Amino acid sequence: MDAKLPLHKVVPLFTLPDKYGQPQNLAKQRGREHLLLLIMRNGIDAQAYLQRLAQRAEEWPQLPARGIVVVGSEDAAGPLGATPFTILIDGEQSVCARFLPDTANVGLFVLDRYAELYQQWLGTDVEELPSAADVDGWMQAIAMQCSI
User: What domain count does the chain have?
Assistant: First the structure.
């Protein structure tokens, strides 16, 4: 599967509403925290995967880092459960179209605090994404690299 976004370039920045309807602007986050973006098309059930990531993410505020999940709608995403990640609603699927190739239903993107893409994984299902331990390793590595 060919990626749409080149590594070591700034990703397209966007504004989407969170699950409470409040607009969240990715550009305003630049310089603050490293980001893990999980972007899903409608119909992907990521609850179990998010729970595994959440267990690892407990230490991310010390990096500083945080996770953002982009879904088409809360209903289409299925039950997300309690998660420490910010949930953004991409009702028009515009972010999905910019980040995911047509053959991918889900993508995981690791960004430094300036929105530079360090790693990405694409798949048709969350089971094709890396383990929570691997993702945590990437977040830790970016934090160490950016502190040098």
Answer: 1
